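Checklist before submission:
- one chain only
- standard amino acids only
- sequence pasted in full

Submission:
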Amino acid sequence: MSDIIVERLLDSAAELFLERDFHGVSIRELAQRAGTSSGMIRYYFTNKQGLFEAMLKREYDRILNILKDIINQEELVDFVDTMHRVMQVYEKNPNFPRFIVKTYLLRHGPGTQIIKDFFQLEKRIVSSWVRDVIAQGKVDRDANAEVVRIAFMSLTLLPSLMIDTLKESYSEQGYAEFRDQYVAIAGNMVLGSVKPRSRNKSKSTS
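Returned file contents:
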């Protein structure tokens, strides 16, 4: 039962905090949305800030778990599949990518440090992985881990920020078709940029 209450509180936090603003949401409102009492927030998370941070960690962990799956793959990353999975995480909570962008633009407020810490962790994971796959010959030796990471993040975030508009334009089914075509193009663009390239050895001239 306790796990169910915690998940309900995290779900209500994701809906309310990301939909509005940290200071515009009350503990009472969070508890009501979760179908429980304010005391449960204090019991499990100490206060509103604790619930807010736990919600952010849960959302970021979903992305981090995808990255870990990628790193554990033996073959070269399927960027199309990976982009599809990341965008599905954003689709389940469309306010999350908006929150990421807003927090980065404002550079202050609740959650800023958590986002910075997560991005640093993500940067270390991706950089370490790129070094490994370069050494294994799976990725071009000139591949820049940070450029690949930012390109991937941008390509997945942008359509996620526009999801409401896209669904209005294409309908639910039309959006799904659009997304599949989008990730096919964007994923193959990233893949093409990191594939090992053959280099002609310079011939010595007499």
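Reviewer check: The chain is about 75% helix and 0% strand.
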